[in-house]
Sequence to fold (191 residues):
Amino acid sequence: SADTLDELAYDTNAGYILGDRTLSEFTVTVPESVSRLEKGVFDNCSALTSAALPATLTSIGEGAFGGCWMLEEINLSETAVRTIESNAFSMCSSLVSVNLPVTAVQIALDAFSYCDMLTEINAAPQSEYFSTKDGSLCSADGKTLLIYPVGLLAVNNGAFVSPEGIEVIVGGLLNRVFGVQTIEFKEGVKT
Fold:
């Protein structure tokens, strides 16, 4: 059976996990009642392939899963995550898709930086804050492009292709998408 995470330091008074950078299990089960994953808690756990997160989780700290390059699967849709901080999943180069919960309110624009295989970030259909177009994370009205998964470059033969209906591309977005060979803006893009 898969290893579970029972030994990680846990502060029962504060209700969150404290960091342990020596973790090398293949799978992790974060205990129920955990509401926050602190900064760098799984930082550079390169052998980590999946993490089961509790429904009580509301926040993923900066770099929490940074450098987990074998992380293939992370299901956020069954959590209560409201906030995903900067570089939370940076360099998770095996991650292909992410399903966000309906509770998501704030996602750092660089939360999924350097995720080379990531081709879709799926907003919950009932989300008041986000939508998904062609795998990209957009504002709820679908007019602002927020995060463009870098794995889409491979799908589009090195081209950055703005989804249909996008009017605004968040500042600096192209600086966070490495390997762009060509850029294709669909009609209607203003900025």
